[in-house]
């Protein structure tokens, strides 16, 4: 017999990758089994029990033991059973002792031992030869100091024993043993059990023990407790426990169907929760429970019709009772496809057939019909072939349109949702149905419930948005010539506009104060605005009679509705029609609106009036027109009215902030001075006071945000003569930032969030002020005067957070780098830990992305003074690039940052070149693979990636000295030219910025690397590529320079 050490080596050799070694070991093990079977079994069990032995050796020892006791073929199994029975009692006792001793050991040996114990039990328990087994296993569960490993593997052993013994013809466990097993198992299943592995093992064990639990399930209190524990398991944190709990319920549905009535309502609630939000493996088991119930009821129905039917057999009709709720749940799952999962036409047809069948008006169950309609909405993604077939499309559209007339409002609403999806996905298939759909629209909008009306209006909004997109696409160079705008909105305009205007008077009382409200009036206004964008000037004569007839109404308590609706209608049509068409109307109406803003007695009318004035300033003011809207004759009255109205209720003040923002923006291009300059101080002061107004938290947050956005726009649009006043804002905003440091946030998440919001607004204002003053050197002095105070305040804001970085504060620092230039280096020692934290904070990818951008700003500002910080920065950037957890949008910016660092530190970048170039090569390969895709998001991302790649190479070519570039970059010239060629060949993905950077890279290669002339001669695409770019004013300078550099290279 092999010594213990030799057996270990033999077991490992039997798993060798070398076939020769493996075959020889297997032969030796077979020989040992033939020579001394009993001694081998003892040795194998000792190997399994020895925690110091290698895991793979122990695993194989257990597998050989199991295979020595059991086999699939009945004859072989009987032979192995007799072989074990014939063994010496002492040998069997030693093997069993070793198996039980293995249960508490580390690794998966305990699991293997549990399997082998069950195989031995299946042989010996029927022969009454291992009477102490169950008592010993149960003792493991009762011991106070039992380890997690021992409890887990003991529960597995109990479960496997129940499974093996349950497969026998007779019951060999006493009721007392069954009770004790169930007690131990259910104890391990409780939600109070701290070890998930133990709880999972107990749940699996219960599933195997259910065969013996008939008496326990006949006892109400015991059954209730078991069911409670199982149901709690379906809500466990571990998905393995949830899945095993549903498996238990499926077994109970099969074995204890008659005991389910008291629990089915709770089980259905758990089903809804699981199916709608759990992992796929858990959902599958929840659905398996209902499949088992259905199969049981099918069997009972069939048995009821047979002569030998048991009269006590009852079909509890669980499926029929659950049908109205269960079918919708199942239909929702029909169209849940895995990403990349192919759906063939047969599958789609089967789904659509089932769904449309359930949608028919003949379907008696409203819940079923509603669920089918929702399911169709989800299935439409896959129905392109069906919608290309006239008869199939006609039938589907008929069923949907019938649904808009259903008795149930939920079905009507869902039907309109389907039509909106069709308007987006199958716009070109709509011409034959639009007349009927408009008739249905009239019927719905004039007389249906609000939720249904909202969806009918959403259909027309979707049509309008689709036609806006098609108009915009028609003007682009990459327009698909087959794309047609069917002008549904323009055709329907004479009938649709009156319908929409009627709905504008259906306001809700107090809706102006509720930021989240959405009702028929607001939906109609939104639809009207979209129609104006589509139809342009044609909508004005359809709307203005309604406006003039109602905007001055004062008769009756409800007259405010007509004034508000008329004002809303006018504001809604300001985007779309030309300035020439609107100009005279706005000129004559502005004074009236300003008066209404001051004097109208209704808050809702004043709210909408302020919004409309803002819309006028956004879409008409500042446009090139023969008669400017605002000038010395009316600007004083405008400012006066707005500064008065800003003191009104918070919801009105919000809209006034918007109006002031748009008013200032309209004077953006003024030089030296601006018509707004005399009002700068008063406007900013009023906005600051508004931001500080007390209100309830939600109102205050919205009002503060609007006020600060308006301040920022007033500063951006300010002329040079207000520069001293802009500078004076710096100490004010720094003071307010310092005040936020004293907000007590201890133990209050809400207070911490509020502090962060206020700091964000103040940091945003700081960024705008610094950027505005950095436009010219004389104004920049104002920033430098307060630079230390600004940076102290920003660094203190960063210090408020221990484990994250404030995004707005980081953006403000980016603005400071531009203003300070090389002087920014004095802040680096304090700022660098924040920078490094932001780079590493990839879980909040927007913060990480902003920080990478600021790193580039720092490099450009302090240049080679960034070098002492480069090692940790480069390590973090390279780690982020390689991590699959980092958001993909961050990675192109990291590549750009490599270029910024290379430009800043020059030849000292060579220590990072090998790693960076390797990353760039991988990125280039990915970009080429992603070319010619139809997905717009992928095209946009690919252009971001290309831009990052090109900027990285440009930084290295221009940062390294000519000698170093020649030494390190020359080998990459050919693949770079191929990369640019791939970009040029990808016509659908063309982006002006990427093409310009590509041309610049060609020039860098030609001017930096020697001997590239032959390389350019081999690339015939280069000349037409640069010639086309030379014809565009935005890229001509770069293309001409690159052509000159390439000509020099060609001349050698």
UniProtKB/TrEMBL annotation:
Pfam families: HEAT_EZ (PF13513), IBN_N (PF03810), TPR_IMB1 (PF25574)
Keywords: Cytoplasm, Protein transport, Repeat, Transport
GO molecular function: small GTPase binding
Tagged with keyword Membrane: no
GO process annotations (BP): protein import into nucleus
Domain Importin N-terminal as annotated: residue spans: 25-105
Intracellular or extracellular location(s): Cytoplasm
Keyword Ribonucleoprotein: no
GO cellular component: cytoplasm
SUPFAM superfamilies with a match to the protein in the record: ARM repeat
SMART domains linked: IBN_N
PROSITE patterns according to UniProt: IMPORTIN_B_NT
Protein family membership: Belongs to the importin beta family. Importin beta-1 subfamily.
Protein name in the entry: Importin N-terminal domain-containing protein
Organism: Chlorella ohadii
